[in-house]
Every structure is written in structure tokens, then in C-alpha cells.
Amino acid sequence: MNAEIVAVGTEILLGQIVDTNSAELGRKLAEFGVFHTHRQTVGDNRERLAEALRLALSRSDIVFTIGGLGPTQDDLTRSGIADALDDELIYDKSIEEGIRAKLRSRGVPLVPSMKNQAYRPSCAIVIDNPNGTAPGLMCQKEGKTLIAMPGPQSEFLPMLAGSVTDYLKSISDSVIHSRVLRVAGMGESMIEREIADLMEMTNPTVAPYAKVGEVHLRLSANAATVEEAKNMLAPVEEEIRKRLVDSVFAVDEHSLEEVVVELLRKSRQTLAVAESCTGGGLGFLITSVVGASGEFLGGVISYSNEMKQDMLGVSTETLEAHGAVSEQCAKEMAEGVRKKTGADWGVSITGIAGPNSDGTDKPVGLVHIAVSNRDETTFSENRFPGERRAIRERSVQQALIDLHSRLTAL
Amino acid sequence: MNAEIVAVGTEILLGQIVDTNSAELGRKLAEFGVFHTHRQTVGDNRERLAEALRLALSRSDIVFTIGGLGPTQDDLTRSGIADALDDELIYDKSIEEGIRAKLRSRGVPLVPSMKNQAYRPSCAIVIDNPNGTAPGLMCQKEGKTLIAMPGPQSEFLPMLAGSVTDYLKSISDSVIHSRVLRVAGMGESMIEREIADLMEMTNPTVAPYAKVGEVHLRLSANAATVEEAKNMLAPVEEEIRKRLVDSVFAVDEHSLEEVVVELLRKSRQTLAVAESCTGGGLGFLITSVVGASGEFLGGVISYSNEMKQDMLGVSTETLEAHGAVSEQCAKEMAEGVRKKTGADWGVSITGIAGPNSDGTDKPVGLVHIAVSNRDETTFSENRFPGERRAIRERSVQQALIDLHSRLTAL
Q1: Distance, in angstroms, between B97 CA and closest chain A CA?
Q2: What is the pLDDT of residue A272?
Q3: Is residue A405 pLDDT above 80, yes or no?
Q4: Which of A228, B27, B321, B398 is at a distance of 20 to 30 A from A106, taking alpha carbons?
């Protein structure tokens, strides 16, 4: 069983957007062991799309299209599929009704062009698009399957995780099961040195990926069933955990922020943040965790020095003697937000994200982070490389790492 | 003159890396007006690569390969090109010498496998790779040109900016100049209805792309010089601005957050934020703008009701009678943060990001946003579709749109 992706969109060819959808779908196919040897990308051109689909259908069992299902004149995937399959488009009243119902629930009127989305090749069945008006489509003909998915990421990803995953499950006879061990506090080369022999195995495999402030180790096993694959992975994971001691902080999609919220929940403690150079990024990340409201009270974005004084109680002496980017200021911010909010934990970030310094001779990338509870206020001084964006992301990540290590040391 | 890209690498198909190189090359081709209708991606397989190249050469004048030039067994692009051109590989002593010289200057020894990089199709000339040992290659045969570029970004991008740009300049007699108008407050289909006739033009062209909370209109003109192209775009832009009234908020790479900070700067006004369901995301986005510290004072992440009361002065009556996700609460948050911080503007966000509601019968996706200055507190009630992440991003974006419309109404 092999598959092929045909991405549709002149904006992809012109480089106006980077095609991450195909990468996501590629990962999903790999997960189910579906062989995948070609990808094509064509512009918004009906003839070239039909030609690309004919080529794909001639050599692949399952063909996915991504994009071109919208309501505008550019959106030609429906027609291209009909051409390639020698089929014709029919107007599907039930699709129109679905579109109307969706718009109604959002209080948005139906623009006439949206009715274009109600056409489908006569052989197609409709795949629900929970986040958009254009449905996905699936055609099966002469042993081949063609699946059309919408291009906008907010519609593509849920359809991939939902109906398309279900479909792949139903046709696949071997699975690749993966488990990601997330490691913080060790660099990639240090980790590789510890597990070099494990990285040479072929099934299961162990592959490291460096991320912002952490390293992911992906363990993958190819087996007939998920159960069997899991049994193959278990001893490898045990060995890695033994070698890397306490550095594995989470597994799979569990992010550091989820782990931190979970640790707070278990110990029935609360958290507040005080952010300067990250401007709210730490709070934003923590509140991405569903149900963080039990543990996360909120915080103060103290971008100006006045805010640091008025809302967090940072002293004038500290700001005058050491400046806002200093150990003292970070500690007073963390303690201040903890006391002001009544939280058990206060975490603060103050640093120089660049591109320019703060008028002192402190370097861009210098970031002070403090973690405070009733017993103790600890502190890290960091020098992050890269540009403003990278420095801010690393700062948020490091604050979570610092808090995590305090929480696990309890 | 038309071109085609063949990206080579199993890791691209498997989704282990996202192919940004093809997007960069696509942008470059567009800049020089080189027509570009297809892209293919194949794995590290000699036969399939040769087949893809034959197809590309049959329909395109210039074919680019990206990747597969390294020293390992996986790196098959040299062989694939030779096969597709009915040519053979020869060992080029001068390439080997170039590799040796590069390694010497870095103090790195020659690993035997690196000599594989000294093979080239007999018809090929060598393109210097300033940042790597694998040279680029260019073959010309029967009126077709084939250019092989290395895959690692640190080698690909400099070659693209250098030799490949020079080559494209030499063959191109026209340029495509583009300008992006960024539109907020109108959906894609509503915009299309206003400018449907303009979207049918062929030179310049007008094409819409929906983004989170905004729509980008790309205006592109093909002309002999950039100057001439700009002159063709000007009247079209004027017409679009007239029809869409005040909805065009920025041009080209300027983001809404940059425009908002710039508007504040010009009017010498300051801003503070009060965020509930977005947890700091608005502050994080605003502080991504370099130099926002003159205009952005900071804010309060009031995730808990207590924080809304204690730090923003939201009244108990409001919370009891209307709840935290209400017009009244949003207004009191925006006014509260403005007064507490002494900022000229206060912006607040309070909503239900999901996946669950807040214990009331209010729907997930309901988000209240208020914008307050000394004269007036305005307000929008929004229902955003999608999941938690999308709802939070849309909320941040909508808050900027609401603030922007107040700032431009001044």
C-alpha cells in the first residue's frame, strides 16, 4: 500500500507559504507504515492538477490532495479531481445545508460564492470538516482511493487527527508506534554520548531531535500491533532513563508546561508569574494547558520599571544600584508577585531580548530568572544566543525548567 | 521560460523536516518572473529521482534539484542526474582539491566518503558552495538547464543568494514586483465581492490569502523594471483602498502589532493590557515589536477572579451578576488596568477558550474584548470557531484589530 500527496496552491509554488501540511501528513503516513515515495505540488490550475492526479493515481494506491477546496475561483481541486477520475461535479444540497448550519451557529451570513463548496465529484463521499465550511472528500475508484483535504491549517490538522487517522488505522496492517522521551538539562551531544549504542539499533530505533531548551528522543518500533510495538519499546526506554538519570521530564505530547501544571495540581499549589522581557509569554504558555485555572492565578507583565515598583514592590534601591536586569530585581519580582497574589510559587523573568541592550553594558541575551516559594527564592543567570525571538522563547522555556526542578525536588 | 523544482530526501517525505528551501527558491523564481508550475519531491532513490527529472525536463526549461549531494550512500542526486541525462559520472580531481582546501582551512581531516562528492556528470560545470564541501552542479543539454543545489540550509541559502541569483538575473528580462496589502475586519469572501473584477486581471494580479484574523491581498506586476512594476501597482492599490475603505491596515511585512505600536508612538500614547483567557498572549505579541518599551507599560494577567478584583478593581457585583466572561467585566478590566498603570489605553480580553465552558451556559469561543481610553470604553463580543489554541490566537488578533480601529479613528 503506497500513498502520494498532491499539494495544491500557487502560493506554495511562489514560496508565499511553506507547506507544513504535507510534512504533517507525511509523518502520519509513516506512523501507520504506509509507504510514501512521491509528493507533487501544483498551482491553482485545473488542467495541471488533473494531470498531476492522473500521474499519482497511476503509481500510488492512495492519493491525498491538500488545498483548493475554498469558495473562490482559485479553488479548483473539486474540478481537478472530477477531471482526473472522468467524473462530473454534482451539487449536493446536504453539503449546502451543512454550510448554512455552520454559518448560522457563528452568526455569519452565507456569501453566494460559498455555495461553490457544495459541489462534489459524483463518486465522492463527504468528510466532515469540524473547523470550516469546505468539507473533505473521499473517492474510491478502481481500487484507488483519493482523499481531498482543506488547506488552512486550522481545518487540515483536526481532519488529519480525526477522520484521516481513523481511515489509516482501518487500512494498515502494521503499525509504527513511537514514544518521545523529552529531556531537559542535557545537550544533544551529551545525550548522544550516553546512548550511542542504542542509536544504532534498527527496530526499535532511537533518534534525537534538538528543540528549544530540550531534546526529544523518539523511540519507534515497527510491529503487527501497537501492543507488540509497546513491548519492544519498554526495555529501551528503561535503559535510557537509567543512563540519563533524572533528565527525562516527560513522555510523548506532554509538554513541560503540562508537566509543571500537573505537579502543581498534585501538590495542591498555585503559581503566579512576573514577566518583563517575555511580556506575557510564560503566562500564555502555561494557560495553553487545559484546566490550568486551578493552579495558575495569573501575574504581572511588568515591562516598565514603574510597573515593577508599583505592582510588584521592587525597590528603588535595587533598580538604581543593579538595574532591572539583575539577580536582585528578578528575586524581588518573583517574591513580589507571589505575595501580591497569594500564590504558593512566584516565577519571574527579566532580561535583555535585544536587538539592543538596555543602555548599560549588559549583553543582549542576558536573562535572569527567579523561582520563589515561602521557603526559598532561587535564581538562574542565563546567556541565550540568537535573536530577539529565540531569546524570548528560550527564556520562557528556561523559567519552566527552573520551576520544574524546584517542584520535583520537593 | 519556466522552471521546476525537484526536492530530494526521504526525510522530507516522512515529514521529519519541512521543506523551506523549495519555498525560498520559489520566491526567488517569482522575483525574476520565471514561471514555475510544478514541484516534485522524491525520496533518496536513484530510479525514482531519475524518473522525476525526466518528467521535469520534458515540461520545464530549467530544473532545480535540492539535496542529495552529500557524501553518504543516501546521496544519489549526482547519479540520478547522470541517468536522466544519459550521461555518466566522472571523477573530477579539481573538485577533490577544492574539498581538501576547504577542510584544511577548517582544520578538519578528509573522511574517505567525502571523495564521493568529487564525482560529477561529465556535462556538468561546478557551482561554488562557499559553506560546504559538496559543490553545486549545472548541466546544459538540448536547450534545458539542470541545476543541483545542496540541501542543508546553511549551504543552500548562500548559493541561492549568490550564483543562482546571478544566473537568474542573466536569463531574465523581466521582474515581478509584489506588494501585500493587509486587511483586517473583513472576511475573505466579503473582500472578494468588493474586488472581484480586480481579481480577474492578469497583469498586475490581485490574489487574496486568508490568515488568522486578517486577509492578505498580494498585488503583483510583471514588468521590465521594478520601477515600471511599481507604477502598474499604484493605481490598483489606490482602487482597492478606496473600495475597502479603512480596512487596509498595513503593507508588506508590517504586522498589526507593529502598526499598533507605531500608531501609539506617533500619538505619544501608552498602552497596558488585562488578559484572562489569553494569559499574556497579547502582551507577548506586542513585546515582540522591537522598541515597544516606549509605548507598552505592561499589564495584568488576571486568570483568576481574585486577580480581576484585587489587581484590576473589577467589582464583586459584576462578577456575581454577569460572570467573568461578560461585557461588564471586560470593560472594568480595561478601565482598571488603564487607571492602575496610568496608561493612555487599556485593552482587555476575557473569554472561554475551551475545551469546556466556565460552568455557565456560555459557549466555548465566546470572547469579550474592551478598549478603553480617557474618553470612552468600547467593546466587542466575539464568537471564535475552532479549538483552544485557535480561539486564543484569534482573541489576541481581534484585540489588536479593535485597538487599531480606535487608534485610527482618532
Answers
A1: 31
A2: 98
A3: yes
A4: B321
| Cα–Cα distance for residue pair B317/B326, rounded to 1 Å | 12
Cell 530540550, located at residue: A214
Please classify residue B140 by burial: count the beta carbons closer than 10 Å to its beta carbon, then call 0-12 exposed, 13-18 middle and 19+ buried: middle
Q: Which of A18, A154, A278 sits opposite B23 (nearest CB)?
A: A18
- Taking an 8 Å cut-off on Cβ atoms, the answer to whether B288 and A108 are in contact is no
Domain with CATH 3.90.950.20 in chain B: 256-409
Whether A322 has its CB under 8 Å from any CB of chain B: the answer is no
B112–chain A Cβ distance below 8 A for any pair: no
- For every residue of A112-142, DSSP letters joined together read GGGGGGGEEETT-EEE--TTSSSPEEEEEET
For CATH 3.30.70.2860, the residue range(s) in chain A are 175-251
Task: Please tell me which residue of chain A has the smallest CA distance to B388.
Answer: A288
pLDDT digits (tens, 9 = 90+) for B204-238: 999 888 777 788 998 989 888 889 999 999 999 99
Contact B281, A279 (CB under 8 A): no
Interface predicted TM-score (ipTM): 0.71
Candidates A71, A93, A92, A90; CA nearest to A82 is A90
Judge whether A408 is closer than 8 Å to chain B, CB to CB.
no
The CATH architecture to which A256-408 belongs is Alpha-Beta Complex (3.90)
The residue-averaged pLDDT of A306-330 equals 96
Instruction: Quick: pLDDT tens for A191-250.
Output: 888 998 998 888 898 887 777 678 888 898 988 888 999 999 999 999 999 999 878 888
> Residue A409 has what pLDDT?
83
Q: Distance between CA B133 and CA A267 in Å, rounded?
A: 55
The whole model's pTM is what?
0.71
pLDDT of the residue at B359:
83
Chain B CB contacts of A311 under 8 Å are 298, 300, 311, 340-341
Which residues on neighbouring strands pair with residue A178, listed in sequence order? Answer: A220
A347 vs A403: CA distance, rounded Å: 7
Pick the CATH number of B256-409 from 3.30.365.10, 3.90.950.20, 3.40.640.10, 1.10.1020.10: 3.90.950.20
CA-wise closest residue to A396 among A291, A317, A287? A287
Determine the topology of domain B2-171 in CATH. Answer: Molybdenum Cofactor Biosythetic Enzyme; Chain A (3.40.980)
Domain(s) labelled CATH 3.40.980.10 in chain A stretch across 2-171
Position B43 scores a pLDDT of: 92
Min Cα–Cα distance to chain B from A121, Å = 23
Nearest to B298 among A30, A288, A300 (CB): A300
d(CA B175, CA B155): 26
Q: And the C-alpha cell for A55?
A: 500521474
